[in-house]
Design goal:
Blueprint: E1 11-15, E2 18-24, E3 31-33, E4 36-38, E5 40-45, H1 55-67, H2 70-78, E6 80-84, H3 91-103, E7 108-109, E8 121-123, E9 126-128, E10 138-141, E11 153-160, E12 164-165, E13 168-172, H4 173-183, H5 185-194, E14 196-202, H6 232-243, E15 250-252, E16 258-264, E17 267-269, E18 276-278, H7 282-291, E19 311-312, H8 320-332, E20 335-337, E21 344-348, E22 352-356, E23 359-361, E24 365-372, E25 381-382
Parallel strand pairs: 5-6
Antiparallel strand pairs: 1-2, 2-5, 3-4, 6-21, 7-24, 8-9, 9-24, 10-22, 11-21, 11-24, 12-23, 13-20, 13-22, 14-16, 14-19, 15-16, 17-18, 17-25
Length: 383
């Protein structure tokens, strides 16, 4: 893998005689985490006088950087890289760009399973990021980090940006670990030693909640094999087969609800940096429950949804004050990025959590694509 060199000098790709420059620019709120800019923002452009950058030229340049190891090196160093300057904001553009970037790294699309949310397919490996109402916060979480299976990378693309609000907050999971270690050392010790049980309750088809519209029968949840005309018993049997791919700890509740418990570590180690990362989605889960008034028994929100809290793996309760402060820290360290149409954010899911700020004016459409690796040297490690 070649060296990128000082990032303030930028990166250059030359493919078939076409030069594409990746020059660093500053955005409000960027942070320095362990000596590196977070997130890194690069402006893509062709040299002066050579015309506007096309989608195909941008894709060839991205594939070139990935094949040379530069994309991976930048993500290892900075956690997230936002690419600006490519003018096509269509879902197809995202598909073309992420396939170039990730196939060039030898990665493959992540097979989503157990989604506790709703997503619409827009293009090949391109989905809506969140379909929750625009007035709601989506708080910090590493994608699927409370699950036993999760992607190595998650990428975001701005299809449409609202006039006001709707920022994309990113937080560095190594900085999150450092802050929790400094402020809540006893909590971090217990998390490290005990691990977590992460529970989710999935409603049955036809009984979706008001804000977060999903059921266990969704194709990205546990319903990929469910066919039109299947009766409830058949649907449940098919869902059980899929749930068992994640965990043996699941059961049916009253009214055909499915409760799933996943036993996972709370902290991990990044494979390239060797640094510990806070990888668990505790902050995001608590923040959502807090907004819905569901942080105390019976843990049911004002929208009727169940929000059972995570516990330590031995079943003991996590003190609510620890969860609350963890959520506050995740908000304090988040960098709120006001994305522009055509922006592509390449994100190391192991190192960076993400969220969504509410908006009240205009349209916001952020698309997402998830990828994974089977290279042992690139897989997240236990602490």
């Amino acid at each position: 893998m070649g060296s990128v060199g000082p990032v303030d000098k930028g990166v250059v790709s030359v493919v078939d005689g076409v030069t594409v420059n990746f020059d660093p620019i500053e955005l409000p709120g960027q942070r320095i985490v362990h000596g590196n800019t977070f997130p890194l923002v690069l402006k893509m452009s062709k040299p002066e006088g050579e015309g506007e950058l096309s989608l195909d030229e941008a894709a060839r340049a991205l594939r070139d950087l990935s094949e040379r190891g530069i994309t991976t090196e930048l993500l290892n160093k900075h956690g997230a890289v936002i690419l600006r300057g490519q003018p096509d904001a269509s879902p197809r553009a995202m598909s073309v760009l992420v396939h170039a970037a990730e196939e060039g790294r030898g990665h493959f699309p992540y097979d989503q399973l157990g989604l506790a949310g709703s997503r619409t397919v827009h293009e090949k490996e391109v989905f809506s990021a969140s379909e929750a109402p625009p007035n709601l916060w989506i708080y910090q979480h590493n994608e699927y980090s409370r699950y036993t299976k999760f992607p190595s990378n998650i990428h975001f693309f701005c299809h449409a940006a609202p006039a006001k609000g709707g920022e994309s907050p990113f937080a560095h999971s190594a900085e999150m670990y450092d802050r929790v270690a400094a402020e809540l050392p006893g909590f971090l010790h217990d998390l490290t030693e005990k691990g977590l049980i992460s529970p989710d309750v999935y409603r049955p088809p036809g009984k979706e909640a008001k804000n977060f519209i999903f059921t266990w029968a969704g194709p990205l949840a546990f319903g990929r094999d469910i066919q039109p005309g299947d009766d409830m018993a058949t649907m449940k049997r098919k869902a059980e087969i899929q749930a068992a791919r994640l965990t043996p700890h699941f059961w049916w509740r009253d009214n055909d609800e499915l409760e799933v418990h996943q036993h996972v570590p709370a902290v991990r180690r990044h494979p390239a940096t060797g640094k510990p990362v806070f990888f668990n989605s505790l902050a995001g889960r608590y923040g959502t429950a807090y907004d819905r008034g569901a942080t105390d028994p019976p843990y049911v929100g004002d929208d009727g949804m169940a929000f059972p809290p995570a516990t330590y793996r031995d079943g003991s309760t996590i003190p609510k004050e620890y969860l609350h402060r963890t959520w506050e820290i995740s908000q304090e360290i988040a960098v709120l990025i006001k994305t522009q149409p055509g922006d592509l954010a390449l994100v190391d899911n192991y190192q960076v959590s993400h969220g969504r700020a509410p908006w009240f004016e205009g349209e916001r459409k952020i698309l997402v694509s998830m990828w994974d690796t089977d290279k042992p040297e690139e897989k997240i490690l236990d602490l």
